[in-house]
Amino acid sequence: MAKKKTEKSVMDRIAEANKPVTTGVDEKDIKQWVMIYIMGRGYKVPADLTILTAMEFAGYRFVRGVGCRQGFCGACGTVYRKAGEYKLQTGLACQTRVEDGMYLVQIPFSPAKKPIYNIQKEPYDVSVLLKYFPEIARCVSCNTCSKACPQDIETMDYIQCALRGDFEELAEISFDCIRCGLCAMRCPAEIVQYNVGQLGRRMYGRYGLKKPEHLKVRIKELEAKKFDKELDVLEKASKEKLVELYAARVREKD
Ligand code: SF4
Ligand code: SF4
């Protein structure tokens, strides 16, 4: 059956439904607006929204490329250009505020070459990183990766640590990586930095750190089935009971 001319498009209906959610205020009360361009089409959106909420305000609905919305999961890595600027900017869509004249386009997901390895069979030296990520030797020290990182991680430095086989420093510098992929997307040497960091941290955790005493104690307790009864109660509890138990839990002292 032909659509009536007055019928709203799906995009308009989504945009309308999103407005009270994304802004929390009535449209007539919004004082500042900016123009953003999504795939070349202009949208007027409230000035204080993030890219993510602005796109929802404009009618887009995310089923992929979005996760926690709080800057932790790394799912919404985004590139954009500002009006009149040549430079490509990067950021998390959930943390970056829209600006007047911002241009956004859809890009494919970041590359994520994931080698399969067993760290128990690998030597604790630089050769393991070069074996699975030989491309790190191509790093030209351009620092583009660090500039692209929304976590302000010195990404280039941890790749240099990888090249030196300095696992401890690599783990320390890359610790806050959320695997958003923006560094890899910009790297001229096609290095997937976050996977290098992950292998480095795994190796450091396995070989570089001393086994903590309390972990040994806990493993013995688990082997002796010390917590099985409590786990059984949790597994059978209703959602309401779980909420009640969570609220009444004994907190560990700092
Ligand atoms: S190091 Fe790369 S993947 Fe990790 S948070 Fe920074 S830009 Fe994202
Ligand atoms: S972007 Fe690539 S080549 Fe440039 S410093 Fe970072 S890892 Fe090295």
The helix content is 25-40%
User: What ligands does this structure carry?
Assistant: iron/sulfur cluster
For the biggest β-sheet, the strand order reads 2-1-5-3-4
CATH superfamily of the largest domain: Beta-grasp domain
Write the H/E string, N to C.
HEEHEEEHHHHHHHHH
Number of strands: 5
Q: What is the assembly state of the chains in this entry?
A: single chain
Task: Write out key terms for the chains shown.
single chain; 254 residues; alpha+beta; Fumarate Reductase Iron-sulfur Protein, Chain B, domain 2; 3 domains; five-stranded mixed β-sheet; 40% helix; 9% strand; binds iron/sulfur cluster
What would you say this structure looks like, in words?
The structure is a single chain. Helices cover 40% and strands 9% of the residues. The protein has 254 residues and is α+β, with helices and mostly antiparallel strands. The chain has three domains: 95 residues, Ubiquitin-like (UB roll), CATH 3.10.20.30; 90 residues, Alpha-helical ferredoxin (Fumarate Reductase Iron-sulfur Protein, Chain B, domain 2), CATH 1.10.1060; 29 residues, no CATH class. It has a five-stranded mixed β-sheet, covered by helices on one side. A hairpin with a 7-residue loop joins β3 and β4. The radius of gyration is 24 Å and the shape is flat. The protein starts with 9 loop residues before the first helix and ends in a 7-residue tail after the last helix. The site of one iron/sulfur cluster has 16 residues, from α4 and α5.
